[in-house]
């Protein structure tokens, strides 16, 4: 093993999740697989072809570099949509490769029209509306200029979509704000349509909105965290379970992060473990040294708190998590050997280490922990 840890991605779990999500949205709503943040840490190069095999034909990314990786990775043609960063010089590449993209500023819309005219193509744009997130999007006054520009460049710009993004659909405390955003979106959409610009697709829903606000499904949903087997928040999960007789979680997690025992160390009672004096052995102990530390995405905040699985048993992290190694207590786990499998995240036997447990211990959100997994950890698709 040339790397100190590796990640397994379960194809059967992904198929389960996609089947469930498509069932939830119905046959007439487009499912877009959001793979920003290196496919939420799962790896674009490994995840995207697998998702395509599972029936996905539409992908959403944040930036042009992610779109380029995706274009080079997919074995078959699919729709690629850039939701965020795209320099105007990169517009030429996107338009030539029939990549769709969000437009939330007038200069991007004008540049897209000019480039499309130059190459005799039509730029496929998704007009993003500012409805209350206050991040990106045309507000009501700027929308008038966008409409005027669309009037002038119908021949070279195709209004593929009109979209917005909700400011926290995963939390009930944002409920009124989300309802206001829905109203603002519908008002601005109606104004666009009355001005002669009807999009092919209307889309507003992320994973949380798909569950909590089914009226936002419209023509397409942009699903990120749920396809990987995680709920956007405990509130979202409770709402779904509360509405169904079957209380079993319908999602399966794709990811298992594994390493091996690098070495075993006997530590006498009273000795300190690792840097500083944060942990003093309360008895004679046996520690397993695991070659993963904070440089590999295992947070230093998990020092003296985190847990791993060895031989299907939980082993607690003792001492400070180092840059490249950490120590775990295997005193009460019989017959632990060098090279034994260590599960940092995922399932071993009847036990599991969840992303949620990481978050509770280190204050990291599901999203943050997953996307911080370094891209140079090898990822393998299994089953």
TrEMBL record:
Q: Gene3D superfamilies, alphabetically?
A: Alanine racemase, Lyase, Ornithine Decarboxylase, Chain A, domain 1
Q: Which GO terms describe its biological process?
A: D-alanine biosynthetic process
EC number assigned by the record: 5.1.1.1
The protein's required cofactor(s) are namely:
pyridoxal 5'-phosphate
Identify residues that carry N6-(pyridoxal phosphate)lysine.
36
Binding locations of substrate: 135, 323
Origin superkingdom: Bacteria
Can you state which reaction this protein catalyses? Answer: L-alanine = D-alanine
Pathway in which this enzyme or protein is active = Amino-acid biosynthesis; D-alanine biosynthesis; D-alanine from L-alanine: step 1/1
| A GO CC term attached to the entry | cytosol
What region holds the Alanine racemase C-terminal domain?
254-382
Do the record's keywords include DNA repair?
no
Where, by residue number, is the active site?
A: 36 (proton acceptor), 275 (proton acceptor)
* Classification via Pfam families: Ala_racemase_C, Ala_racemase_N
Q: What does this protein do?
A: Catalyzes the interconversion of L-alanine and D-alanine. May also act on other amino acids.
For this chain, the family text in UniProt reads: Belongs to the alanine racemase family.
- NCBIfam families, A to Z: alr
Name used for this protein in its record = Alanine racemase
Which species does this protein come from?
Pontibacter actiniarum
């Amino acid at each position: 093993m040339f790397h100190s840890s590796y990640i397994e991605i379960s194809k059967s779990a992904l198929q389960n999740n996609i089947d469930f999500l498509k069932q939830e949205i119905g046959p007439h709503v487009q499912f877009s697989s959001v793979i920003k943040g290196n496919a939420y840490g799962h790896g674009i190069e490994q995840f995207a072809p697998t998702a395509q095999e599972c029936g996905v034909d539409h992908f959403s990314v944040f930036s042009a570099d992610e779109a380029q990786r995706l274009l080079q990775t997919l074995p078959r043609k699919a729709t690629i949509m850039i939701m965020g960063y795209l320099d105007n010089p990169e517009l030429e590449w996107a338009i030539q490769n029939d990549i769709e993209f969000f437009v939330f500023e007038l200069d991007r819309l004008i540049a897209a029209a000019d480039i499309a005219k130059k190459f005799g193509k039509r730029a496929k744009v998704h007009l993003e509306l500012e409805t209350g997130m206050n991040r990106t999007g045309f507000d009501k006054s700027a929308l008038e200029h966008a409409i005027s520009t669309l009037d002038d460049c119908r021949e070279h710009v195709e209004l593929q979509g009109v979209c917005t993004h909700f400011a926290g659909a995963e939390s009930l405390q944002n409920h009124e704000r989300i309802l206001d955003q829905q109203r603002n979106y519908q008002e601005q959409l109606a104004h666009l349509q009355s001005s002669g610009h009807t999009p092919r697709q209307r889309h507003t829903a992320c994973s949380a909105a798909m569950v909590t606000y089914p009226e936002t499904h419209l023509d397409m949903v942009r699903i990120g965290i749920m396809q990987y087997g995680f709920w956007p928040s405990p509130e979202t999960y409770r709402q779904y379970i509360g509405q169904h007789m079957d209380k079993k979680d319908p999602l399966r997690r794709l990811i298992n992060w594994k390493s091996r025992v690098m070495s075993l160390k006997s530590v006498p009672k009273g000795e300190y473990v690792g840097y500083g004096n944060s942990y003093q052995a309360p008895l004679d102990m046996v520690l397993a040294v695991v070659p993963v530390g904070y440089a590999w995405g295992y947070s230093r905040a998990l020092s003296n708190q985190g847990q791993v699985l060895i031989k299907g048993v939980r082993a607690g992290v003792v001492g400070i998590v180092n840059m490249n190694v950490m120590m775990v207590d295997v005193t009460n786990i019989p017959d632990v050997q060098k090279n034994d499998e260590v599960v940092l995240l995922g399932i071993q036997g009847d036990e599991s280490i969840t992303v949620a447990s990481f978050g509770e211990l280190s204050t990291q959100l599901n999203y943050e922990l997953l996307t911080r997994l370094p891209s140079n950890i090898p990822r393998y698709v299994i089953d």
